[in-house]
């Protein structure tokens, strides 16, 4: 059934996607652009991944102010160190729950990172419970003090936290599906790498969209739609399997459980693309886990797809064409995605109390 999912004007969107406009490609500007520099708040910035993302964002000419927040006091040291880098971006640090309100107020983009897998056997539910308190605090403060900010989630499991954020925003009456985005750029990067490796192409010249999600059992690479199209069909399964176990392979080789370097770059690329879109650039296209609309929503209310970014977040969602094998993979991934969606939504609706020992800790908002 997924093989029939198509959208109008996909060829035009696909052309933009193939430009690899991730903060480096030539831009088409809207002459009516109002702002050209933006304030970005990075949550859990003292985390391993947070530090890497902060380093990359400090080098962005589109960010005038980079706010680093963490409960750990080492975030102040990170900010002080980064401030010595001779770029335009000003760095500020915010430490402790009492100042989270000030960290998110007035920000154009709020990004939640960190909490990556540190063990091979760590499942989505374990990640959810490990990261729940941090992400929920972020959601509640953004919802209360800056609901118009674009809220980007890169904390796993994204497939659960995006629906959870959406439900919280709905309860508060401030939900805008364009502004809650799960970052999945690292999935595209891995797909490009393995396609280049197997087909003998330069990965920098490859562009492959992904659908489904970003977790191991949820990601489906649309290799049949990759450009340039030099991949033999017999290699599709090999590429898909390689992408699925990529994070596991790094974890096996890592002594400290660190698998966040490529993920950090993916987050930075997406944030840069969103900043460009905010400034009026009209050709910003990537893949992200978002609320779906139209006929795709009948199968999955949330999933990763091609998205076109605009001044208010996601401008439009587009499902690429997929072949029979990819449709089979997406159908299999659908079960895991739905489980994660239910996991996230149930923590807001209260259904989790029936089958979970953990309850969400009350969030105290700063006054």
UniProtKB/TrEMBL annotation:
One of its GO terms (biological process) is tricarboxylic acid cycle. SUPFAM superfamilies: LDH C-terminal domain-like (SSF56327), NAD(P)-binding Rossmann-fold domains (SSF51735). The keyword NAD applies. It comes from the Eukaryota. It holds the Pfam family Ldh_1_C. GO terms for cellular component: mitochondrion. Its EC number is 1.1.1.37. Residues 40-182 form the Lactate/malate dehydrogenase N-terminal domain. Residues 188-347 form the Lactate/malate dehydrogenase C-terminal domain. Belongs to the LDH/MDH superfamily. MDH type 1 family. This is Malate dehydrogenase, mitochondrial. It comes from Ceutorhynchus assimilis (cabbage seed weevil).
């Amino acid at each position: 059934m997924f093989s029939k999912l198509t959208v109008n004007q996909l060829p035009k969107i696909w052309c933009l996607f193939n430009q690899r406009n991730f903060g480096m490609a030539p831009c088409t500007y809207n002459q009516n652009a109002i702002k050209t520099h933006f304030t970005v708040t990075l949550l859990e910035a003292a985390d391993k991944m947070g530090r890497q993302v902060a380093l990359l964002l400090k080098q962005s000419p589109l960010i005038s102010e980079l706010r680093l927040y963490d409960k750990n006091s080492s975030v102040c040291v990170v900010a002080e160190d980064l401030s010595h880098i001779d770029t335009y971006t000003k760095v500020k640090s915010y430490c402790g729950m009492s100042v989270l309100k000030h960290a998110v107020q007035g920000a154009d983009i709020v990004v939640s990172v960190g909490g990556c897998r540190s063990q091979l056997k760590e499942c989505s539910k374990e990640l959810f419970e490990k990261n729940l308190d941090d992400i929920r605090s972020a959601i509640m403060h953004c919802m209360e003090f800056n609901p118009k900010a674009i809220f980007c989630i890169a904390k796993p499991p994204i497939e659960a936290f995006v629906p959870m954020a959406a439900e919280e925003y709905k309860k508060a009456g401030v939900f805008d599906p364009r502004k809650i985005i799960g970052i999945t750029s690292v999935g595209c990067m891995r797909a490009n790498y393995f396609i280049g490796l197997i087909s003998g192409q330069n990965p920098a010249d490859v562009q492959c969209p992904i659908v489904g999600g970003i977790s191991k059992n949820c990601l489906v690479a649309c290799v049949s739609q990759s450009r340039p199209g030099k991949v033999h069909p017999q290699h599709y399964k090999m590429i898909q399997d390689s992408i699925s176990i990529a994070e596991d392979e790094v974890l096996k080789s890592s002594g400290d459980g660190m698998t966040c370097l490529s993920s950090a770059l993916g987050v930075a690329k997406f944030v840069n693309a969103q900043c460009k879109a905010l400034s009026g650039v009209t050709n910003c296209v990537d893949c992200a886990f978002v609320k779906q609309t139209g006929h795709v929503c009948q199968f999955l209310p949330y999933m990763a797809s091609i998205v076109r970014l605009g001044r208010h977040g996601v401008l439009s969602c587009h499902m690429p064409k997929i072949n029979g094998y990819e449709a089979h993979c997406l159908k299999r991934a659908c079960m895991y995605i739905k489980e994660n969606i239910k996991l996230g939504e149930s923590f807001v609706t209260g259904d989790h109390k029936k089958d979970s020992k953990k309850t969400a800790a009350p969030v105290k908002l700063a006054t």
